[in-house]
Design goal:
alpha/beta; 10 strands; 36% helix; binds adenosine-5'-triphosphate; ATP binding; ABC_transporter-like_CS; nucleotide-binding
């Protein structure tokens, strides 16, 4: 069986500077992989390149055995959804308007406005509120809701815990666990090790544009020496 996502020798970057320098990565359908690494090593660039938002200069990306389309809307239609760093909600649009827009090109599936609002009841309570007036945690939930409504096979989550209180991070964990239950594959870029360890089957570490380490979560968690060497944390 093909992996859902197969990345081979991927290179990309910005205006003459190479950031990804030969990334090799696979992810099976329904699996949850945490991508860790120090600041600036290229984790977000990988997410943006997979989503077609940063052009690749060489390498291959395959989704379910077929070449990944290049344009973001085609990548989304192929079943890949992005929860970007910084949420990227539209401040004047209400929660309801965001959800309506997200359903426009959605594939049919488990996730509908009803099931997403059942999972994220705080959004249901704020359906007429402009996104700009939501708290950071609520905006993060909205960004996740928007991604789920497309009924993706793969969700790329870029630092969902960034700047959020522990209670909200717990809610994000619950949502990622639910994605797993529904068979959605997740590539999670995270600095919060507690979050990554609690939801991921495996951990990969990036350094200077390549994947330098990959193991199951339990092995990574029980090997603080390696974690310290790769991430600078105990
Ligand atoms: N839009 C951009 N234009 C030019 N350089 C960029 C751009 N975005 C990122 N970079 C550079 O690319 C490199 C990798 O950045 P990236 O955001 O992918 O790292 P990261 O591992 O996600 O870091 P962090 O954990 O701090 O978010 C950095 O040197 C960064 O300055």
């Amino acid at each position: 069986m093909n992996p859902l996502l197969e990345v081979h020798q991927l290179r990309s970057g910005y205006a003459g500077s190479t950031v990804l320098d030969g990334v090799d990565l696979t992810l099976n359908a329904g699996a949850t992989l945490g991508l860790l690494g120090r600041n600036g090593v290229g984790k977000s660039t990988l997410i943006m390149t997979l989503m077609g938002l940063v052009p690749m200069s060489s390498g291959t990306v395959r989704l379910d055995g077929s070449p990944m389309p290049h344009r973001p809307h085609k990548i989304a239609r192929a079943g890949v959804a992005l929860v970007p760093q910084g949420r990227r909600v539209w401040p004047p649009l209400t929660v309801g308007e965001h959800l309506k827009l997200a359903t426009r090109h959605a594939q049919p599936g488990t996730w509908t406005t009803k099931t997403v609002l059942e999972l994220l009841p705080r959004l249901a309570e704020r359906i007429r509120q402009p996104a700009g007036s939501l708290s950071g945690g609520e905006q993060q939930m909205l960004a996740i809701a928007r991604a789920l409504l497309t009924n993706p096979r793969l969700v790329l989550l870029d630092e969902p815990s960034d700047g959020l209180a522990p209670a909200i991070i717990e809610s994000i964990m619950d949502v990622i666990h639910r994605m797993r239950t529904e068979g959605v594959a997740v590539l999670l870029v995270e600095q919060d090790l507690h979050l990554a360890f609690s939801v991921c089957d495996e951990i990969a570490v990036m350094d200077r544009g390549v994947i330098v380490h990959r193991t199951d979560t339990e092995s990574f968690r029980s090997d603080p020496t390696t974690a310290h060497r790769l991430l600078g944390v105990a």
